[in-house]
Amino acid sequence: MRVRAFFSSALTALWLAALATATAPFAHAADIPDPAADAKAFRDYFVKKFPKLKLDEFVNGPYSMDEDMRRQWEEKEQFPPYEFALEAGKEMFSTPFKNGKSYADCFANGGIGVRQDYPAFDVKEGKVITLELALNRCREANGEAPYSYVKDEMASLTAYMAFTSRGKPFDIKIPDDPRAREAYQEGKRYFYTRRGQLNFSCATCHVQSPGERIRAEILAPGLGILNAMPIYRSEWSGMGTISRRFTTCNSQIRGVPLEPQSDEYRNLEYYLSYMSNGLPISGPGARP
Amino acid sequence: MASTIRVRAISSGDITEVQALIQHPMDSGYVKDAQGQAIPPHFIQQLTFEYDGKAVLVADWGPAVSKDPYVKFSFKGAKKGDELKVSWVDNTGSSDATTAKIQ
Amino acid sequence: MSRTTRTIAIAAAAFAAALTPARAASEADFKTAYAAADTAEKEAGALRNQWTTTEAALATARKAAEAGNFDQAVAQAKEAEALARASIFQATSEKEAWKALEIK
Q1: Distance between B77 CA and the closest CA of chain A, angstroms
Q2: Range of the domain at B72
Q3: For C2-29, what is the mean pLDDT?
């Protein structure tokens, strides 16, 4: 049958090509990632694309791209829709666990004003730890059931923690460890890899088309894209975490989402956050 | 229990600008839950802003208004220090009210 | 109609004819087609690159088979296999192709 035959032969050809070029990571000196150079190139790209925009403005996503949307957003910020989630988050954060301990015991500085340090690379574990992951590990270490990464409780908690870091610049570190550099590189690869039946990569929208429309939405630039998280999205009529956004982005381009906080998403968050080092945390945020 | 109504009223000359954010699910009754069951309608039917015993804005709402509605409007005749009363009633008979001082 | 349109129309008709089985499909036909689709989708899963439309086609195939409509079930299973193979193609070619999008 025509369709099958085409894919079989094309597939075989590609498999052979792929096998021929497969190499171990960083087999060549040119392959060793230079995150600092990448971040500078990333920033320069967006600054050049939007020369009138102040660097810090990029954290406002679509509102930095469109005058009319910005005006509406500024009005709403006087009574922001995330206010209820933020209050709920503050209360949750301050309520002790059944064993008497609290979230403050799991974080530096009692968890206040630390959001900008996440994700962090854990050299003991050899993996990236995001804020959401750290919060659930804190719960489990203290005998509490973990929260869903895509529902209201995690959104409220991260909203509060983001709020305590408002204005602080992202300060993501990549330790001198090949595993950390690989995690960073994997995150970068994920960002640029096309996926889903619609064949989009994150870059297709957020590097190639910021400020342009996809259906009725105006696309945010990749620079500063996580700084406002978690966000109250009008589309969701509710608050959503980074995990929620990653998984829904995947399904929107007809890709089956991976498990929240799977390695790929943790590495992606690591890469994106590092790209925005120096830009202020503005979360919790609101988006259309 | 904390009020569901956040309100801020600022007067400038003769005009008072009012903003309010109300915490309410505003379920239309048409949305289904994960089990396929319709979530019952639960929405504000009437929202009233009163100044000096008279209604300055009455909103007749229905299922088309989204969750946690935000309202902004202006009216004449009030001044700083006066009181503005905000109240709502929903289709289940629940209600809430609050009073704010005009700034 | 124009020559191009006519060519496309003929090609489309031929394509559709190629997709239509000559006889009614049996449950055995469905099982074979579904197994092939399922294997391909699992391979896509190992590459962490499955498509929602593949999953939907597999589900439609299963439902059609349950209702005894094996013609539709086989057609959907073959569609699912094609989609799964396309997603494998995507994952494999993107292993190098992603670099073309990278900001340098």
Answers
A1: 23
A2: 5-101
A3: 72
| Residue type at A48 in one-letter notation | K
Of C85, C88, C101, nearest to A192 by CB-CB distance is C101
Angle at A46 (CA atoms; ends A45, A49), nearest 5 degrees: 90
With CA atoms as reference, the chain B residue closest to A79 would be: B21
Give the H/E segment covering residue B70: strand B70-76
Sign of CA dihedral A237, A239, A245, A251: negative
For an interface test with A, the pick among C98, C99, C104 (most A C-beta atoms closer than 10 Å) comes out as C98
pLDDT in tens, A211-237: 999 998 999 999 999 999 999 998 888
Per-residue pLDDT of chain A (288 residues; tens, 9 = 90+): 455 555 555 555 555 544 444 444 455 545 688 999 999 999 999 999 999 999 999 999 999 999 999 998 998 888 898 999 999 999 999 999 999 999 999 999 999 999 999 999 999 999 999 999 999 999 999 999 999 999 999 999 999 999 999 999 999 999 999 999 999 999 999 999 999 999 999 999 999 999 999 998 999 999 999 999 999 998 888 999 999 999 999 999 999 999 999 999 999 999 999 999 999 999 999 999
Nearest to A154 by CA among A227, A244, A247: A244
The CATH architecture one would assign to domain A33-288 is: Orthogonal Bundle (1.10)
Number of domains in chain B: 1
Residues of A in contact with C55 (CB under 8 A): 256
- In chain A, where the domains are located: 33-288
Q: What is the spatial distance between Cα A171 and Cα A154, in angstroms, rounded to a whole number? A: 22
Record the tokens describing residue A247, joined without a space: 């998984």
Greatest extent of chain B over all pairs of C-alpha atoms, in Å: 54
- Whether chain C lies against chain B with 3 or more Cβ pairs closer than 8 A is no
**Contact indicator for B72, B88 with CB cutoff of 8 Å:** no
Rounded-to-integer distance, Cα A213 and Cα A245, Å: 18
For residues A223 and A214, what is the distance between their CA atoms, to the nearest angstrom? 18
> Which residue pairs from C65-74 have beta carbons closer than 8 angstroms and sit at least 24 positions apart in sequence?
C65/C27, C65/C30, C65/C34, C70/C24, C70/C25, C70/C26, C70/C27, C70/C29, C70/C30, C71/C21, C71/C24, C71/C25, C73/C25, C73/C30, C73/C33, C73/C34, C74/C21, C74/C25, C74/C29, C74/C30, C74/C33
DSSP A32: S
Contact residues on chain A for C97, CB-CB shorter than 8 A: 194
